[in-house]
Amino acid sequence: xxxxxxxxxxxxxxxxxxxxxxxxxxxxxxxxxxxxxxxxxxxxxxxxxxxxxxxxxxxxxxxxxxxxxxxxxxxxxxxxxxxxxxxxxxxxxxxxxxxxxxxxxxxxxxxxxxxxxxxxxxxxxxxxxxxxxxxxxxxxxxxxxxxxxxxxxxxxxxxxxxxxxxxxxxxxxxxxxxxxxxxxxxxxxxxxxxxxxxxxxxxxxxxxxxxxxxxxxxxxxxxxxxxxxxxxxxxxxxxxxxxxxxxxxxxxxxxxxxxxxxxxxxxxxxxxxxxxxxxxxxxxxxxxxxxxxxxxxxxxxxxxxxxxxxxxxxxxxxxxxxxxxxxxxxxxxxxx
Amino acid sequence: xxxxxxxxxxxxxxxxxxxxxxxxxxxxxxxxxxxxxxxxxxxxxxxxxxxxxxxxxxxxxxxxxxxxxxxxxxxxxxxxxxxxxxxxxxxxxxxxxxxxxxxxxxxxxxxxxxxxxxxxxxxxxxxxxxxxxxxxxxxxxxxxxxxxxxxxxxxxxxxxxxxxxxxxxxxxxxxxxxxxxxxxxxxxxxxxxxxxxxxxxxxxxxxxxxxxxxxxxxxxxxxxxxxxxxxxxxxxxxxxxxxxxxxxxxxxxxxxxxxxxxxxxxxxxxxxxxxxxxxxxxxxxxxxxxxxxxxxxxxxxxxxxxxxxxxxxxxxxxxxxxxxxxxxxxxxxxxx
Lengths: 336, 336
Prior knowledge:
2 copies of one chain form a homodimer.
Chain A: E1 2-5, E2 12-15, H1 21-30, E3 49-51, E4 65-69, E5 84-86, E6 89-93, E7 97-102, H2 116-134, E8 141-148, E9 157-163, H3 168-184, H4 188-199, E10 203-206, E11 210-213, E12 224-228, H5 240-260, E13 266-271, H6 277-282, H7 284-287, H8 289-292, E14 296-301, H9 308-313, E15 316-318, H10 322-331
Antiparallel strand pairs in A: 1-2, 1-6, 3-4, 4-7, 5-6, 7-9, 8-9, 8-13, 10-11, 11-12, 12-14, 13-14
Helix pairs in contact in A: 2-5
């Protein structure tokens, strides 16, 4: 496994070289026993972390949220980065972490169908795993994401990938929000939140702590961003109170999408600050992140089939407007 | 229809607001008569351009390649750009062109199955349409692309979209190649070509004028880039001789993919210089493009299902190496 850098754009790609492994994952999907259910702990690799209120033993029943290594990891946890060149090209070993967060011991498919208290535990687990992985100086970025629906295992879970490089979209966001801060001395996301509240036509969810919006420049139909109202650059610094609010916000938005679009497949990605670490301290690049970056979730329901045009150009055609989307989602009543 | 700019990354999105129109396109797909076949000219909007060697009338039989407006255009050809702000957001009218290039009068599905002489006509049509669209000062970029397979009309065609903004991926390439030129005073694509010939392990196709490579940092399995060996920044300046060579190169690569992967769906996108125009002359940004940019095709077979992780992060996981891919494709013999 190697990481290769595109010499033109600086984008890093992982060569997972796991062409055979998806079969293993496929076999698991088709197995009659769900490997994520309580009691099936032996069917997964040894657990990395679990919320076990009664201090039950690892890899045994009694957990609330359980984190295990991916069955087919895209990156390897062991080893040195070994950065090197191949004439004009740059590459390094694909060192990183790839974990699965099993979000409930029960066989429930959609995060939106979990109890609020359970979603709080999931959110808390994200924060704990990110904080733990960031202790590893080799990892520059920790990304939490979820793919729901399609032919994916029907037991609510998300994934965490820690990478020794900053993913390209995060680099773009960091660079854009830094430029804005340099010019205005304000966080661009904080300004977006203020403007969205003022205009009040793209808001999907709002309470004291969080706001969900159909973003002005949505790439996909029913794309929703969920942001904390109070400026915060790093998700893992979330407070207890915010954990409870976030659970309500996530459940509300996902439930609205589920009801309006008939339980669509969806993905979400948590965008949060890269690992500052020691290297960060040495680089001016990182020093302003605390001020100019703002963590958020990007939720994309029923991600459309990839069109060659959009992949190839990065220029998205979206048949719906965020104002319509927000209006439709606001009308969906959710009670819990 | 509007174009909206993401205030963080600068990426432009088209709101096509055509939610109802795909049904029209779908009805056409399911129609018994193919609207792209010779004799069905009345089933398409009035033609924009055609190669008609015997000077037959527009919208009648007798053409070799025919260009018509898209049935469900993403951008409108009429009107002013009307750039404007909405508080901190930027938007403009979605003015542009969206054309369909019908690549053959015969009902043949895959470009790779056309005669070489016919592919030459297609390539020549691309160049003529790009040159014509670039005369329109409103358009900053003209992108030619093709989606083949899946549920797309089974009559070989490609599409052209002219936009008043530079697509994000092209912006990244322009910026990366400019930085490289500023530092080395060499075109990065020319350097890549030299290195690929020297290393000779990622070459899929090579002749006097063109080289096809599985790029070092391939995002997708079986991704292939096709580049002219002689430095050239703008596709529409292609010479007669290069048109013939390009037809051979395109047919060879597409045929190899078709044979090796059992006629897979694929997309390709032509990456070429944006419109320099008058505005270009005024901006230093554009003045170096002639030296530092290099047009090329990016071909992506069987574009995988979009994973939320890859969409959300721009960090791609590719299970194959370009060296394996090139070795497999080189072994496929094609004769024509």
